[in-house]
């Protein structure tokens, strides 16, 4: 036995040294993401509110049941392999993927899915999409590969949120009693990457060798780098220090793509910018006034001046181009706002807002209308330009405006508490069908009395016809019935004009293609061009290939 | 000692005022943190999250303003600063602990360096008045001192990081290095060069002018003429008579400048994405992160107060008139 043990010691040493060497080896292909913001302390808890967990948590480490493409609603199977709604749309049955392993080697099963959703019920502060508040009554694993979701009332759009909930392992999370403040420093998920290193400057994940999708991902590691703003992030992309960044710059064509063959971008339209009217204030409480004002605004000019041709005028229906074919009735397709100052002028007079001898527009009480403020974010050049064009347009019909630049918190606070006159902002709450935008913008539940914070009903507009259409949409999974409900929503809103859709709004993906290919593009839209902190980014990390 | 005791009393009182302002000011900012967060996601965060977020941040049941105020004072005294909203659930103290060394290291060291360099040149410029270099220094210093911080930082960044790639574009370190190794130190220094240069170049000019004026004043004093008449060596006059007396007023200003290290860090740290207190303060204000804002403000107030107190104390040692409590 002696010689063996004499040999064993150096062998063990050698093995240890080799092991250490293997660990110290740097990954050969690293896909680098640059962020235009900083992150703080190390937190990989996927249930932490907001995106205050590290980006990797949502996009590389944890997986969801499905990925729903936000542009066209296309569903990609992830941990779920199929789903069906019951006849009354109150039961959803999801089959789960067999043969999936957690990062620690334990098997994933439908029990983990049921556990995750019941965990959200147990800790309501984790339920960021309000699943249990919106009618979910029970989640059960009805077999090793089936999960059944039961609802008190039909609410089919909830699928989008259900599908996007990160699934965590029961064997680890059942031990965690303070999930709200738990920072999860050693995350165990089912995703294509495992957590490796964290610092204030960079976060790294490494390829999961046991990932269920054989052969993918093609890269060995993904690294996120923090910067403090768009300019810094853009420089890193231009210098080739990063391969991808979600960076909103004013002119992606001239300011980025034109600088070289390896610089490309994909900015699919996923939302719109709106001129919101505060409908709690006269004269904005008068639909006739709002309609007339809408006709006076030249949205093509607004888009051209604000985005120099990169983004177009918004469709008047507020249904984004990617969803129009599926959701808009033929009669409403391609409706662009009709700009007609003369008609606007006549309509205002007809509605009781006459002009005086000086050309000033008068209120219904016969006194000149005050100068209305247009609320924008301080220094947001695109919104300020929009407000200028809107102001010039309204001047022509005798309405005076001024631009009210506010810092971020006053801006969002002003919109949410309805203390503004008119304000420019994006659609608060968009999703894979037009329902989500109309629901967040105009549903009574998301409104609040003036002075109180409304989550997203900024114009404080509700209409029974619209509220009913929203309810009809929720209650069915039949695309034809849903399409009809959307048509009602669109026509109601276009008639009452609580907002004016001004310009398109897009995702901001910038690529440096010198090292990798197969990015999501308009020709290959396998995700919705979404930023790196949402589940859609996982598809990019799975598909990008080293050149 | 009644002089120092009185100063200490003022320190405590000012601290209380600072704490109270600290409590009031964030509440005067319109909007609420949850609203700001929902808005920040520009439609990507579900509005349904409001209830969950309110609960998560403990904003749902806060009590009356008075209760909040005394609760706040009590927590401050116990050193419990709560959890950050912007970086939930990290305790604010952890964030400060992580960020403060970078700010103190970068801005603190460069403030001292710019004081030393500026004062040395100021002394030289006054002492060698009439020489070509000495007379060229003050206008140059005025020019550099009046240059906007921000603009100079961007210029450096563009020339030496983007065009020439001599230095990194930002941050404080290359990722994934083992701390305290030679590579780590070299990375740390390379990242510090441009921000440090920004501060030293723009701040040293001010110290140069201050010091030069002080020295000129001293040089006009009778005791210098007397010292010269006694036949003392130039070196002795410079060290014992000029430098000591000229440093005193600069010293006061320096004490205050040290106190403002944290506040002054905002610009440099924002331009260079340097993860110090200034950057976090900026982010806290934008995100309505009350707990983080409050502790950084408190940190600044404490730094200014303590620096002032130390200067006062040192003055008592250095200046007999102060020590005796006489005002003239």
Automatic annotation (TrEMBL), chain A:
Stretches of the chain forming a coiled coil according to its record: none
Gene Ontology BP, a term: peptide transport
Signal peptide start-end: 1-22
Organism: Deinococcus aerius
Keyword terms, alphabetized: Signal
Top-level lineage group: Bacteria
Pfam families documented for this protein: SBP_bac_5 (PF00496)
Protein name: ABC transporter periplasmic protein
Cellular component, GO, one term: ATP-binding cassette (ABC) transporter complex
Entry keyword annotation includes Cell membrane: no
Domain Solute-binding protein family residues, every copy: 75-444
GO MF annotations in UniProt: peptide transmembrane transporter activity
From TrEMBL, chain B:
Alphabetical UniProt keywords: Membrane, Transmembrane, Transmembrane helix, Transport
Membrane topology note: Multi-pass membrane protein
Keyword Transport among UniProt keywords: yes
The keyword Cytoplasm is assigned to this record: no
InterPro entries for this protein: MetI-like, MetI-like_sf
Gene Ontology CC, one term: plasma membrane
Listed transmembrane segments: 102-127, 139-161, 188-209, 246-268, 296-318
One GO BP: transmembrane transport
Domain ABC transmembrane type-1: 100-311
Gene3D superfamilies to which the protein is assigned, alphabetical: MetI-like
Superkingdom assignment: Bacteria
Protein name: Dipeptide/oligopeptide/nickel ABC transporter permease
Name of a matching Pfam family: BPD_transp_1
Family from the record: Belongs to the binding-protein-dependent transport system permease family.
């Amino acid at each position: 036995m002696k010689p063996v043990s004499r040999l064993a010691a150096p062998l063990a040493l050698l093995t240890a040294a080799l092991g250490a060497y293997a660990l110290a080896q740097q990954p050969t292909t690293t896909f680098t993401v640059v962020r235009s913001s900083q992150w703080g302390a190390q937190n990989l808890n996927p249930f932490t509110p907001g995106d205050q967990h590290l980006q990797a948590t949502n996009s590389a480490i944890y997986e969801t049941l499905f990925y729903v493409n936000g542009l066209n609603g296309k569903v990609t199977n992830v941990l779920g392999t199929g789903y069906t709604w019951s006849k009354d749309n109150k039961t959803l049955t999801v089959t789960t993927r067999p043969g999936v392993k957690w990062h620690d080697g334990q098997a994933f099963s439908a029990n983990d899915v049921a556990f995750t959703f019941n965990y959200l019920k147990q800790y309501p502060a984790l339920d960021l999409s309000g699943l249990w508040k919106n009618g979910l009554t029970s989640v059960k694993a009805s077999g090793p590969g089936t999960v059944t979701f039961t609802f008190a009332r039909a609410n089919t759009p909830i699928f989008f949120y259900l599908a996007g909930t990160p699934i965590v392992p029961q064997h680890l999370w059942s031990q965690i009693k303070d999930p709200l403040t738990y920072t999860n420093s050693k995350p165990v998920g089912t995703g294509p990457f495992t957590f490796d290193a964290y610092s204030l400057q960079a976060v790294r994940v490494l390829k999961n060798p046991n990932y269920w999708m054989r052969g993918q991902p093609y890269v060995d590691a993904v690294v996120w780098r923090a910067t403090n703003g768009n300019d810094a992030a853009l420089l890193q992309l231009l210098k080739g220090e990063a391969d991808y960044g979600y960076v909103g710059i004013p002119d992606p064509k001239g300011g980025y793509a034109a600088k070289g063959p390896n610089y490309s971008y994909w900015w699919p339209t996923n939302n719109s910018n709106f001129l919101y009217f505060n409908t709690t204030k006269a004269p904005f409480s008068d639909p006739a006034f709002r309609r007339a004002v809408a006709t006076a605004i030249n949205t093509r000019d607004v888009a051209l001046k604000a985005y120099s041709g990169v983004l177009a005028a918004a469709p008047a229906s507020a249904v984004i181009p990617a969803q129009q074919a599926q959701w808009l009735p033929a009669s409403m397709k391609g409706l662009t706002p009709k700009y007609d100052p003369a008609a606007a002028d006549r309509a205002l007079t007809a509605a009781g807002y006459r002009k005086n001898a000086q050309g000033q527009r008068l209120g219904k009480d016969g006194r000149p209308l005050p100068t209305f403020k247009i609320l924008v974010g301080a220094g947001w050049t695109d919104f300020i330009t929009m407000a200028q064009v809107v102001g010039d347009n309204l001047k022509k019909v005798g309405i005076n405006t001024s631009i009210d630049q506010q810092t971020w918190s006053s801006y969002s606070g002003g919109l949410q508490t309805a203390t503004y006159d008119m304000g420019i902002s994006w659609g608060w709450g968009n999703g894979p069908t037009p329902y989500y935008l109309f629901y967040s913008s105009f549903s009574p539940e998301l409104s609040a009395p003036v002075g109180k914070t409304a989550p997203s009903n900024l114009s404080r507009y509700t209409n029974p016809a619209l509220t009913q259409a929203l309810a009809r949409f929720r209650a069915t999974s039949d695309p034809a019935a849903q399409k009809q409900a959307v048509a009602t929503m669109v026509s109601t809103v276009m008639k009452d004009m609580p907002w004016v859709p001004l310009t398109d709004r897009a995702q901001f993906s910038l690529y440096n293609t010198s090292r990798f290919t197969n990015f999501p593009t308009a020709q290959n839209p396998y995700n919705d061009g979404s930023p790196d902190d949402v589940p859609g980014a996982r598809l990019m990390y799975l598909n990008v290939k080293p050149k | 000692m009644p002089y120092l005791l009185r100063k200490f009393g003022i320190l405590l009182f000012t601290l209380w005022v600072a704490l109270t302002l600290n409590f009031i000011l964030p509440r005067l900012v319109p909007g609420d943190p949850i609203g700001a967060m929902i808005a920040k996601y520009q439609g990507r965060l579900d509005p349904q999250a409001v209830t969950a977020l309110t609960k998560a941040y403990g904003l749902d049941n806060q009590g009356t303003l008075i209760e909040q105020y005394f609760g706040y004072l009590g927590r401050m005294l116990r050193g419990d600063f709560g959890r950050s909203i912007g970086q939930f659930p990290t305790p604010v103290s952890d964030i400060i602990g992580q960020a403060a060394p970078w700010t103190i290291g970068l801005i603190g060291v460069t403030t001292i360096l710019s004081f030393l360099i500026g004062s040395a040149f100021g002394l030289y410029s006054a002492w060698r008045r009439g020489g070509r270099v000495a007379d060229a220094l003050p206008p140059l210093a005025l020019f550099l001192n009046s240059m906007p911080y921000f603009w100079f930082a961007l210029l450096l960044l563009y020339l030496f990081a983007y065009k020439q790639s001599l230095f990194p574009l930002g941050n404080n370190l290359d990722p994934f290095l083992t701390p305290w190794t030679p590579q780590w130190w070299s990375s740390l220094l390379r990242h510090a060069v441009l921000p440090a240069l920004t501060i030293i170049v723009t701040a040293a000019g001010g110290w140069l002018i201050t010091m030069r004026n002080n020295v000129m004043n001293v040089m006009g004093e009778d005791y210098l003429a007397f010292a010269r008449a006694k036949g003392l060596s130039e070196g002795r006059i410079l060290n014992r008579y000029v430098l000591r007396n000229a440093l005193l007023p600069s010293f006061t200003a320096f004490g205050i400048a040290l106190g403002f290290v944290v506040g002054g860090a905002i610009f440099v740290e924002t331009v260079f994405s340097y993860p110090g207190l200034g950057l976090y303060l900026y982010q806290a204000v934008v995100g309505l992160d009350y707990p983080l804002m409050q502790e950084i403000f408190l940190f600044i107030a404490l730094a200014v107060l303590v620096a002032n107190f130390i200067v006062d104390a040192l003055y008592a040692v250095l200046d007999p008139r102060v020590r005796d409590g006489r005002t003239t």
